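Journal club prep, shared notes

We agreed each person brings one worked example of a sequence with its structure written out as tokens. Mine is Ovoperoxidase. I'm keeping it raw so we can talk through how to read the token line rather than staring at a rendered picture. Sequence first:
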Amino acid sequence: MEISYGLKPVWTRLVLPCCLVMLSALLLAELSSSYVHHRPMTIPGLDEITRTIEHTTRWEEMREKIYLTGIGKRQQKMSRRSPEYLHQQFNRLNKRSKRFAMVARIAENLTRIYGKRQIGLVSPNALPDLCRMAGFNFSFKDCPESTRIRRYDGACNNLVQVNVGKAFAPFQRFIPPDFADGIQSVRQSVRGGPLPTARTVSANILHFEHVFEPSYTAIISHFGQFLDHDLSSSGSDSRECNKNDCRESAFCMPIMIDQPDQDFEKPCMSFVRSLPSPAIDCQPGPRQQLNQVTSFLDGSQIYGSSQAEADFLRDKLRGRGQLRTLRDPVSPTNRPLLPLDQEHKDCIFERVDRQCGLAGDHRAAEQPGLTALHTLFLRMHNSIASSLAIVNPSWDDDRLFEEARRIVVASWQHIVYTEYLPTLLGRTSLISDGLRGHPSAKFTGYDVDVDPTISNVFATSAFRFGHSQVPNNFSRLNEDYQPVFPILLTVESFFNASHVFDVANGGLDSIIRGMLVQPLPKVDGYIIRGLTAHLFADAPGGLGLDLGAMNVQRGRDHGLPSYNTWRQWCGLRRARDFNDLVNEFESGAIVKFQRTYRHVDDIDVYVGSISENPMRGALVGPTLACIIGRQFQRLKFGDRFWYEIAQGEQAFTSDQLQEIRKVTMARVICDHANGMKTIQSLVFREPTRSPGEPGAERSFFRYNSRHQFPDIDGKLPGFANVRVPCSDVITIPRLSLEPWRINATPNLRSASAGKRSESKFEGVLMTAKKQPPSDQPPWWYLLPGFETPTQKKKKLNLQQKIQRRDQRRPKDNN
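Then the structure, token by token:
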């Protein structure tokens, strides 16, 4: 594992002095030419810039030295299981993050003192060379010759721009950041002066009771968190911040608490700024933040975001392509659990052999619903690897592991885009953003110019909408879906491993069954008190942190523009005053916003977007649907390893793809949870009691392959989501691995069906220039044996771009 716990990086001692020497030489060379061509301008001197860089470096080294001498460790020991410390565990740092943050702070200091333009005049290549010495970016020579398997760090996915979407890179910006000083200080009110404190915003707007969505289940909330952890992780370093110190610094931005406050008597809440990141081109400019995981939908929360993490998680002793597991020591079925995280000493557990679980993402044990999903996909990988070993006994450990990983990631992508996103965004967004899949065609819409990098607003605000969906408790049900076990309060579940081993109350399986029945809170601007007053509290129920306030403060820390600015970016009408939003927000919200903010342009994007009325047939409002939809559009069209892809050695065969399309979340749960007798076919919707109208479809797999799910109102006409036995592989099909058998015979019946579809589609295109019928795929889906002019053009553009990239490569890298 590459998690750091305070050890001083070797790079700080060895590489940086070399970088300073190189930077000095570059600055000296560029400085002389700058004086010749730009004499009228005031150019900073070499000594002055060098002193600035050295000052930043010394400061960073001093912080490390103080920590290593024991001060930091004593503070850590004193705050064990405190809310602040558990929050630090949630935002745990990788050692590479600290190394890149040092480069970012050097760039930030230079930008603040001299300005971006002057640095560019002195030496435009100085900071990129510093980034290169720190190992920030990859080059073409780092990419493997074979492009069949994803790299764990996400690099080389794009063969033209090899750093796009990789781990340990900055979030991308859809809109330039809004910092008061243009670099890193918090934005101000448009009327001058500070914005209302984040705690005031939370207390005035977010503290109310839940309303529930009819017919939706709570697994949506847990699945959304599991998905979020595949896409984003911005670390922070809390060693500089003291919860009793309300002073701001370069690292601390405490949340001030106006008194009297209904929950907190202290003057402020500790808040640590996210670690800065160099820009992707390593040029000076406003502060960027680092994403510690890959941007791609690649199961990094299961496998990790580096080769070292993946190797650490693998069970190489057995040699069967497996992930490491812990055999459940208390369950009679002995089903595998996540292996123990020996480094996480702060989970609540009863015995030393029962600790927090270890996964590809360090947040796996944050709450038991999240742990349950991690456990299901761990078991899924190992089950597929075991079956592949039977189908192809000649395959070695690496081949079994990588092929099982390919299948799990493809299945994961399919579930996200076929079940979760349609439920969340509704039909309108699916169509407008090209997110809808196709039951038989292959995908040809990959574009090297599409940047799939996770956007700052998505990670920091938009995809935190799920915090409004978190319930007050976990229902725990037996195999017959009866609530025979006591409910588990959310405030008692944070980093609490004891519930995983609580067989007396059903363990993880009772929580999974509860997710399939428990109603889903609406995205309505309300967050439970367990999160706004008791987050990470110890003891449970005591005062903790305010997640709503922290979300608002995080948006300001990252320089996110206001809610009104994002409305305009999404093509929505910009509000001139609060009354312009009366029809956008739920009843009574305008009064709360007027009481909190001085101007409509001051509204933070987080509270504004989650307060919107949902779109027709969706769970979120138009601003959230816009930001989330565009992000997932980029994740689909900008991923060379997208599971439906038609071209390249990484593509699945038609028969393999058709098997992956059978996978549903219901089947994942049936096969990998203990004691699942029955389940509804679409787990994100509550089970229906009646069998539905005569002839109603019970299989979501078959229904989705024949209908446009959902309809404009978010409903499924003609579908009966009744519980069926898990043994019913007709209603809930099971993936077959026969197409992965070496020299497998193609399925001729599916090929002939494809040709019939091809003939029909070709006939449509040969007619006059009319919009094709709704049952025909858009241009980015290719039916077998047919290629439209648009597809040919896209394919040619890709080939031309790769050729131009190869021509730009240095000769010694060929």
